[in-house]
């Protein structure tokens, strides 16, 4: 997908415009729309992943033919992304599951409280 | 891929050393993904633990214009960086240098705004030690800012090397790798913009 001989790198221009549009839509969803909070969060994260895709596939030559697929170690990149997902989702699941976010306790109280709750359940 | 030198294709991929260098850099980026994932996880878990410091929603909402400008600066710099590599592949060292300098100026603009933003938050009473939430915020956004700073310094060194040695297998590989790094920083910023700023405004 190297458009080396073209004067204007079409793919870059399209990717750039796409990322601008997606950023504006995400900002509008937060500032201007009346959607429920959950829907806003889901949609802006979908847009974020799409934008990451634009960067990877349209800017970072990840699937480039002329350089033999960009020599991307797919298995290792997959491990990176899988680990990232496990770390983020796992931390949220273990630390924040069943836990009220908006409370006014300090951070250091939070963990203890949850821990006590759990041990009470066990008894 | 065979180990011998190739006669065609992008300059940075022609030598075995160049191909291995780029492969190694992708592995580094995989590790960076995990590094930022741990910081994002910490941030997500500590979300809402602001203690007596100001709530993020107030600060983010009043500064939304600046956050958008920062995002556009970085998105544009990622685009100009792509153009720089495009010029490099046409063998145009001057075009490469010009577009890379534009990229760096945009990056510096981003960095200046981020420093201004952090300074503003500190004046509002949200500092690194003021609460668990703000510690996580400054460490995550600050690690990204540090990466941008390093990227700018790195690219400046490469521009000096380009002036001394011209476009070779080795310098083109170095420029290609720094462009991957720069696009990657934009990917991380998209998630900071979405996960911290936009989410912080609605939650």
Major sheet details of chain B: none
Tell me the distance between the termini of chain B: 50 Å
The helix-strand sequence of chain B is: HHHHHH
Class from secondary-structure proportions of chain B: mainly alpha
What is the count of DSSP helices of chain B, taking H or I runs of 4+ residues?
A: 6
* Mean pLDDT, all residues of chain B: 91
Question: What's the arrangement of secondary structure elements?
Answer:
The complex is a heterodimer of chains A (123) and B (203).
Chain A: H1 10-31, H2 37-59, H3 74-96, H4 107-122
Chain B: H1 16-45, H2 56-62, H3 64-89, H4 93-123, H5 132-165, H6 169-202
Helix pairs in contact in B: 1-5, 1-6, 2-6, 3-4, 3-6, 4-5, 5-6
Could you walk me through the main structural features you see in this protein, from its secondary elements to its overall organization?
The complex is a heterodimer of chains A (123) and B (203). Chain A is mainly alpha-helical. Chain A folds into two domains: 1-71; 73-123. Chain A is 68% helix and 0% strand. Chain A contains four helices and no strands. Chain A has helices spanning 10-31, 37-59, 74-96, 107-122. In chain A, helix 1 (10-31) packs antiparallel against helix 2 (37-59). Residues 104-123 of chain A have low confidence and may be disordered. Chain B starts with 15 loop residues before the first helix and ends with a helix. The model of chain B has no long low-confidence stretch (mean pLDDT 91). Chain B is elongated and about 65 Å long. Chain B has a domain at 65-202: Cytochrome c oxidase, subunit III, four-helix bundle (Four Helix Bundle (Hemerythrin (Met), subunit A)). Chain B is built from six helices and no strands. Chain B has helices at 16-45, 56-62, 64-89, 93-123, 132-165, 169-202. Chain B has 203 residues and is mainly alpha-helical. In chain B, helix 1 (16-45) packs antiparallel against helix 5 (132-165). At the A-B interface, helix 1, helix 2, helix 3 and helix 4 of A face helix 1, helix 3 and helix 6 of B.
């Amino acid at each position: 997908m190297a458009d080396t001989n073209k004067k204007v790198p079409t793919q870059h221009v399209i990717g750039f415009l796409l990322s601008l549009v997606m950023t504006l839509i995400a900002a509008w969803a937060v500032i201007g729309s009346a959607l429920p909070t959950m829907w806003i969060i889901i949609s802006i994260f979908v847009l974020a992943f799409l934008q990451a895709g634009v960067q990877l596939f349209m800017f970072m030559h990840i699937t480039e033919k002329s350089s033999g697929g960009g020599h991307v170690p797919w298995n290792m990149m997959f491990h990176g992304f899988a680990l990232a997902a496990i770390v983020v989702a796992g931390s949220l699941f273990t630390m924040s599951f069943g836990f009220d976010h908006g409370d006014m306790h300090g951070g250091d109280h939070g963990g203890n409280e949850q821990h006590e709750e759990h041990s009470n359940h066990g008894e | 891929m065979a180990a011998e030198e190739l006669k065609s294709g992008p300059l940075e991929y022609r030598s075995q050393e160049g191909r291995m260098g780029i492969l190694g850099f992708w592995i580094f980026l995989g590790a960076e993904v995990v590094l930022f994932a741990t910081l994002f996880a910490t941030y997500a878990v500590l979300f809402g633990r602001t203690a007596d410091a100001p709530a993020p929603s107030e600060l983010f909402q009043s500064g939304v214009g600046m956050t958008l400008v920062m995002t556009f600066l970085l998105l544009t710099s990622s685009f100009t960086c792509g153009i720089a590599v495009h010029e490099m592949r046409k063998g145009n060292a001057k075009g490469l240098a010009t577009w890379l300098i534009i990229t760096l100026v945009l990056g510096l603009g981003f960095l200046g705004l981020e420093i201004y933003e952090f300074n503003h938050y500190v004046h509002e009473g949200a500092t690194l030690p003021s609460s668990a939430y703000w510690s996580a915020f400054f460490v995550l956004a600050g690690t990204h800012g540090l990466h941008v700073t390093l990227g700018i310094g790195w690219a400046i060194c490469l521009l000096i090397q380009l002036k001394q040695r011209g476009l070779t297998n080795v310098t083109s590989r170095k420029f290609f790798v720094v462009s991957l790094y720069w696009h990657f920083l934009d990917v991380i910023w998209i998630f900071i913009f979405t996960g911290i700023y936009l989410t912080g405004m609605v939650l």
